[in-house]
Design goal:
This protein is an alpha/beta fold and 196 residues long. It has helices at 15-24, 32-39, 45-54, 67-76, 78-101, 134-145, 149-158, 162-168, 179-195; strands spanning 3-8, 29-31, 107-111, 126-131, 171-174. The chain folds into two domains: 1-28 and 105-196, P-loop containing nucleotide triphosphate hydrolases (Rossmann fold, 3-Layer(aba) Sandwich), CATH 3.40.50; 35-102, no CATH class. Helix 1 packs across helix 9 (179-195), helix 3 (45-54) runs antiparallel to helix 5 (78-101) and helix 6 (134-145) packs across helix 7 (149-158). The two termini are 12 Å apart.
Length: 196
């Protein structure tokens, strides 16, 4: 049985970069965000259900899901967020399980931004948190997404608190250094996970 490492962290913490380093090391990485993107492509049942619940206004001119509109909608309204989660989470987690079944490796990384918020932590063997202070989250996320800091603050506030995230972690990577520092920490974890 493959060791399942659930990787999580707040917005702008460096989860994607950490996953890229694990991939460079030959570790299978399953990314819930990538799966969710695939499952809401035009013609997919999940997108049809989103249109049914939220209306045509969440669709761009090219027929794809308008991520900004849906994000604004769900962060402004908890009930809408729950509705979207009820559509996406079951199909995303089903696909993650299917992918894990096909892995032939000592361990794999399952990147789930809302691992702790959604109760998905029960589906992994260890929790790895990529952590940075809030100020750094704001800086990185606003630079990356060209998003207003107030919007990013709202996203941070909608996620589990940093304190609770850290207390749930089996392993923590402090990512307030540069890419080389992060790479060194991931290499050490790789050694550790490979020998569990």
């Amino acid at each position: 049985m493959v060791l399942r490492i659930g990787l999580t962290g707040g917005i702008g913490s460096g989860k994607t970069t950490a996953c890229e380093i694990f991939t460079e090391l030959g570790v299978p990485v399953i990314d819930a965000d990538i799966i969710a993107h695939e499952l809401v492509k035009p013609g997919m049942p999940a997108l049809e259900e989103i249109i049914r619940i939220f209306g045509e206004e969440v669709i761009s001119n090219d027929g794809t899901l308008d991520r900004k509109i849906i994000r604004d909608k769900v962060f402004a309204n908890n009930l809408d967020r729950k509705k979207l989660e009820n559509i996406l989470h079951p199909v995303v987690y089903k696909e993650i399980s299917a992918q894990v079944e096909n892995i032939n490796s000592r361990y794999c990384i399952i990147s789930i931004p809302l691992l702790l918020e959604t109760g998905a932590s029960k589906t992994v063997d260890r929790i790895l948190v990529i952590d940075v202070p809030r100020e750094q989250q704001l800086e990185r996320a606003s630079n990356r997404d060209k998003t207003d800091k107030n919007d990013i603050n709202a996203i941070i506030d909608s996620q589990i608190s940093r304190k609770d995230r850290l207390s749930a972690a089996d392993d923590i990577v402090d990512n307030n250094g540069d890419i080389n520092d992060l790479r060194k920490k991931i290499y050490e974890l790789h050694e550790f996970y490979s020998n569990i």
